[in-house]
Amino acid sequence: MKKLKVNLSNCFGIKHMEYVFDFTSSKVNSIYAPNGTMKTSFTKTFKCIAEDIKPVDLINVDEKSICTIKDNDEKEINKESLLVIESYKEEFKVDRVTTLMASEKLKKKYDFIYNSLEKEKDNLLSSLAKLSGIRKKEEVLEELVNSWGLKEKDFYEILSGIIESRDRYNLPVKLKYKDIINDKVKEFVQEKENITLLNEYIEKFDELISKSKYFEKGVFTHNNVEDISKNLMGNGFFKVKKIKNSLTINEKQICGKEELDNLIKEEKGKILNDESLLKSFNALDDKLTRNAKLLAFRNLIQSNPEIISYLFNWNILKQQLWGKYILELCEQVECVIKEYNNSKESIKKILEESKKEKTLWNDVINIYNDRFDVPFIVEVDNKEDVILKETTPIIKFKYKVGDSQKNVNNELLLKVLSTGEKRALYILNIIFEIEALKKLNRDTLVIVDDIADSFDYRNKYAIIEYLNDILKSNIFNMIVLTHNFDFYRTLKSRLNIKRENCLMAQKDESGIKLVEGGYFNNIFNIWKNNLNNDRILIASIAFVRNLCEYLEEKNSVNYIKLTSLLHLKEDTENLTVEDLEIIYQQIWKIPINLKDKERKVISIINKEADKIIVESSESVNLENKIVLSIAIRLLAEKFMINTINNEEKIKKIKKNQTTGLYSIIKKENLVSKEVMALLEQVNIMTPENIHINSFMFEPILDLSDNHLKKLYCKLKELLSEAYEEVAGTESLTREQ
Length: 736
Description:
Blueprint: E1 3-11, E2 14-22, E3 28-32, H1 39-50, E4 66-71, E5 82-85, H2 104-132, H3 137-147, H4 155-164, H5 177-180, H6 183-189, H7 192-211, H8 222-234, E6 247-249, E7 252-254, H9 257-272, H10 275-288, H11 295-303, H12 314-328, H13 330-356, H14 360-371, E8 376-380, H15 383-389, E9 395-401, E10 404-408, H16 410-416, H17 419-440, E11 444-449, H18 457-471, E12 476-482, H19 485-494, E13 502-508, E14 511-516, H20 523-528, H21 534-551, H22 557-563, H23 577-588, H24 601-614, H25 622-644, H26 647-651, H27 657-667, H28 673-690, H29 698-701, H30 705-735
Helix pairs in contact: 2-3, 2-13, 4-13, 7-10, 8-9, 10-11, 14-17, 18-19, 21-22, 21-23, 21-25, 24-25, 25-27, 25-28, 25-30, 27-28, 28-30
């Protein structure tokens, strides 16, 4: 994309904005926009497009919103080609993490083996779900591995162990898993009184089993015989016509299924209906019937008393249940184990290869750890799974404590980090997203909103360095917005942005205008050569006075004269342009020839301030801010001096004149609360603008002109009212 044509109306507070962003000579456009100008609204608009939502105006809801964003081929920009990076978003999640994987060749090789094994595993889990009565396959897997206190990766080892040690799994009863493995049953069987009752019951049952002509404890129970009956019938044992098959149990010959079933029923009835056993069961029954949720368990132990002996070791019971299900599916399980053993070595080799591969995940982590100054180190805990299985990475943090490191989770980390450090953590997610987009190799427009806000200088430069890396990839064009002029100026320098691509936002009644930026070079050298511009002439007063403070003493003639133009003194109204010319020549050591030398400087200050007020656009202009600040201070001091009306008190103020005058006004309660609030604003807003120096003038640019304009107008109105009041009093006096 060479150009981006943006036409917005009524989009989140942007009344109107029309601009063509040019990426021909520079892959990045930067916009300096003071707070409240357009930055957040612009970002929200592009965020809507990325999320396929129509932008609106939340305030002027009745106004029609227009949002047309096209490339140089007049094609509408689509959401897939957009990445919007907001100022800070704690809950930001990466959308494209699965693209950061190993080589395609290795991935395909792994997928072929892994998918084949997963298919077999999935079929087995479905079969286990039917036998156990657990509906979800995922829950089957979780319950099974948890029964051995193991993890999902140990599934195949559990299967192999059960097949190899099948004699250990001899649960005599076939049960649905949840019928017995639930909290109510567990709670019941763990109570001492109930344990006693259960033991008494099983002891009596075992005694009756030992006396049985046909059953034997743990070897040949009624459940075993029922299984034999079903199997014999199913395999046609009693249906053979050529040979009359029969079965002999304890010298009793049985010639048919019905005869066998009657034998089982009769013998089982003798045991379960034994008077002494029933008496023992009734003690349990009384407790079990009190809880509706235990009725199924009651019926279960009544018909299958042999299960009781397994209840006293909960984990063993769970293992026995799963063992029974798995052995019932023995043939299918053996096929799965065979598939696993065939795949295991191949998967192992692939995983070893993946570890050797330099992945983008490694790059992301290294970029972050190397460049950003934060009190923690980032690692990916499940790297092989991320690379090969397309799972979400588990980010692990190690907090630096002196020379040691301590593992902490994300939640705890956010609690201990400063705001700036949290924002740096946010950058980690941004890097993930960017690197993923690189892998997709798709042309993308990146909107970056105040990404460096609240960062210290080291991390600001780290961000700029990374933005520079992004631009080395041909797929990215970028629009970076900031309200921080220092960051804006550094962006131009470090990213080598063409001047025409460095923009400043101006707000007026018609909407937002983007104009070519300025103040990238030493502004004071520019001022020196343009002193016949009245606005620059006045703005230079504050800077030259600052130089006087360094080069001369504070009581020097030059310093005192310049102070008389920043504070209202006896000679303030008499100082001329010629006086400034002499001082500027001496300090700057250059020949200066100013026009109209006889003009009073105070008149120029007032005239230029009045001009600034009627200029409609809220432009980014350093000279305007300084001139307005000087004019405001002089107006405020004039009002306060007139209000105090005591020359002796005023003469006692030796330094910080504005503050001194304000203190007298406040102490003596000479004006209303509203006027005091206005004078307080003067004290707060003007000093930074007036005490300008060569090292740090950028914060002044970040202040809005609008506040200064309002303050100037209010002070003029206040002085006008004061003069009218005085004039009225004098007139009344004359009439009297």
